[in-house]
Amino acid sequence: xxxxxxxxxxxxxxRLRRDAAVRAMVREHRLHPSDLIxxxxxxxxxxxxxxxxxxxxxxxxxxxxxxxxxxxxxxxxVPAMALFPVIDDARKSxxxxxxxxxxxxxxxxxxxxxxxxxxxxxxxDVALDPYTAHGQDGLLDPSGYILNDETVEVLxxxxxVQAEAGVDMVAPSDMMDGRIGAIRExxxxxxxxxxxxxxxxxxxxxxxxxxxxxAVGSAGKLGKADKKVYQMDPGNSDEALREVxxxxxxxxxxxxxxxxxxxxDIVRRVKDEFGVPTFAYQVSxxxxxxKAAAANGWLAHDAVMMESLLAFRRAGADGILSYxxxxxxxxxxxxxxx
Length: 338
Ligand code: PBG
What we know:
This protein has helices at 3-7, 20-26, 63-76, 105-116, 149-165, 179-189, 210-216, 219-222, 238-250, 264-274, 284-295, 301-314, 325-334, and strands at residues 36-43, 49-51, 59-62, 80-86, 121-126, 169-172, 196-203, 254-258, 278-282, 319-322. The chain is of the alpha/beta class and 338 residues long. It has a single domain (30-334), classed as TIM Barrel. Helix 4 (105-116) runs parallel beside helix 5 (149-165), helix 6 (179-189) runs parallel beside helix 9 and helix 9 crosses helix 10. The model has no long low-confidence stretch (mean pLDDT 96). Ligand PBG is lined by residues 125, 127, 129, 137, 173, 209, 212-213, 227, 283-284. Its EC number is 4.2.1.24. InterPro entries: ALAD, ALAD_AS, Aldolase_TIM. It comes from Aquariibacter albus. The active site is at residues 203, 258.
């Protein structure tokens, strides 16, 4: 060995980390506002704003109060919003039939938002949980089992109502078997050839959805019941690939992994295996954890927000649904080198 190599490290990776300019030049993955999708909770009526206690900074809003959020998305370059309706109990039923109402909350909101902000893409959830008196995503048989094929029939109707209203993407989040194929066929048959399907393909039975269920009011309805007979078991990874393969074969344009950070290994496997537009959902419980720690002064809010979102990109996600979408887009605008 030469004296040189004895006296100095052979390579100095730290050279590339010494200042912000060079760090930015060699950064492999970055976040852009166009990677983000903002999920929002919509209330019936007008002039209504309600805080979601378990999601600080997130509110349920009536349509009139939602318009400024849509405008912020447009201004900040966040390309899409995902709509989640909060339905009054009076309209909930065992069969969730309000999901099929062409004059219901979701179709109305879609029509108004598309008229006001045509450039903002809208995504609507296809699942019955906001509409059912029992809080499950599908129809129950007398034993309480969630029926598959009967539920798919209703979901097809729900997706068609959303497509008629002009939504850009329908997003089945119900995890029934065969629903992507059935929805695609119906969309084609009705001439909705441009409606994209973003499939919640690898959706796990996760306790991280707790705050979301508070937000849409399905938590109290579900009680001790869970969704393990249709959502995936958190111990499974190969199964996620089988689910994605099925959804793609049935006609999905984009696939999703959910929850997010605890399932980044799944995001990576899906992206590597299929190379299709792959999205991840940083769900309500992940948001609540970071918010709670930040509120206690245990974590630095903006830093963990941005680091967690960047991690999705590094894992291979093309986009992220996140309640932080607007805050993150604002942060990116103010920190061009970070
Ligand atoms: C229900 C649905 C859920 C979420 C999106 N759609 C909850 C569930 O499956 O119970 C969760 C999103 C979040 O936690 O942020 N169809």
